[in-house]
């Protein structure tokens, strides 16, 4: 059985200077206070059914975790459930598809190739784990008799997921499918930024806002910067969460004399 990539974990990240909030994925990234992205304010949507939808997802993920532990005792069930929890929340919030048991071909493709690239910071190796994660979840739904009749035919899931493998990586590399904030923050993640480290994030934004105008535009539009005037260094460029990049005073980072 193919399972999600080891070390996959998710967390909401406030991109302070960009006025945005996105999700981060990567080894060691965890919810700092146990709150889900919805609880941290990652979605503006609310309604009378939200609480019931969340409880339904939570119960289903508890069932999945028990099933997964029985299928493969060595699996990191907690991390896998974190991956699926965020996928299910984005599916509900962004695609108006709240039933975690219903997976059409269109919803699956849109989630993986349009919603996640726009809302989630991830490295290439992390993106490659999304297909196995969903394959395992689909197997659970089918084994437990919970695969919705409104979903694609069960025998089609393998074909659909396989057909999306290249599209997922293509979407990750396409700046037009990412948001301004995921382009800017994605560059940092690729160059060693831990977006859940507040001092590292503050230092990164101070580096970004100090770039020449043309470099800032290029980075925000493409997520790429081949030869920046001042290369980003996650080891030395650390700041204070209330520093200049966040509208505050002072930084704890490299000075002109450094």
Q: What does this entry show, briefly?
A:
By secondary structure, the protein is mainly alpha-helical.
Structural summary, described in words:
Mean pLDDT is 76; it is low at 1-21, 27-49 and 243-258. Helix 2 crosses helix 3 (105-119), helix 5 (130-143) runs antiparallel to helix 6 (157-172) and helix 7 (180-190) crosses helix 9 (213-222). The protein is 48% helix and 5% strand. The chain folds into 2 domains: 10-177, no CATH class; 197-246, no CATH class. It contains 9 helices and 3 strands, in the order E-E-H-H-H-E-H-H-H-H-H-H. It is mainly alpha-helical. The protein starts with 9 loop residues before the first strand and ends in a 36-residue tail after the last helix. It has a 3-stranded mixed beta sheet.
List strands and helices in order, with pairings.
Layout: E1 10-15, E2 20-25, H1 50-71, H2 77-95, H3 105-119, E3 120-121, H4 124-127, H5 130-143, H6 157-172, H7 180-190, H8 198-210, H9 213-222
Parallel strand pairs: 2-3
Antiparallel strand pairs: 1-2
Helix pairs in contact: 1-2, 2-3, 3-6, 5-6, 7-9
Beta-strand content estimate: 5-15%
Distance between the termini: 52 Å
Taking pLDDT < 50 over at least 5 consecutive residues as the criterion, the unreliable ranges are: 1-21, 27-49, 243-258
Q: How much is the average pLDDT?
A: 76
Shape: elongated
The domain count comes to: 2
**Strand segment tally:** 3
Described by strand count, sense and barrel closure, the largest sheet is:
3 strands, mixed
Number of helices: 9
Question: Residue share in helices?
Answer: 40-55%
Strand order of the largest sheet: 1-2-3
């Amino acid at each position: 059985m193919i399972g999600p990539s080891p070390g996959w974990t998710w967390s909401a990240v406030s991109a302070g200077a960009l006025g945005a909030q996105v999700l981060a994925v990567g080894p060691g990234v965890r919810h700092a206070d146990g709150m889900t992205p919805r609880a941290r304010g990652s979605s503006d949507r609310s309604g009378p059914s939200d609480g019931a939808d969340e409880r339904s997802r939570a119960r289903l993920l508890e069932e999945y975790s028990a099933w997964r532990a029985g299928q493969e005792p060595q699996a990191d069930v907690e991390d896998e459930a974190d991956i699926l929890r965020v996928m299910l929340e984005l599916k509900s919030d962004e695609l108006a598809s709240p039933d975690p048991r219903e997976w059409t071909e269109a919803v699956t493709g849109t989630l993986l190739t349009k919603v996640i690239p726009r809302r989630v910071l991830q490295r290439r190796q992390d993106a490659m784990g999304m297909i196995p994660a969903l394959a395992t979840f689909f197997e659970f739904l089918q084994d437990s008799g919970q695969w919705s009749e409104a979903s694609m035919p069960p025998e089609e899931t393998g074909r659909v997921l396989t057909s999306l493998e290249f599209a997922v990586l293509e979407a990750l590399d396409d700046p037009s499918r990412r948001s301004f904030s995921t382009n800017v923050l994605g560059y940092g993640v690729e160059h060693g930024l831990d977006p859940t480290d507040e001092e590292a994030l503050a230092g990164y934004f101070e580096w970004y806002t100090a770039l020449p105008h043309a470099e800032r535009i290029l980075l925000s539009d493409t997520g790429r910067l081949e030869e920046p005037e001042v290369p980003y260094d996650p080891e030395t460029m650390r700041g204070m969460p209330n520093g200049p990049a966040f509208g505050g005073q002072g930084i704890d980072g490299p000075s002109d004399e450094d």
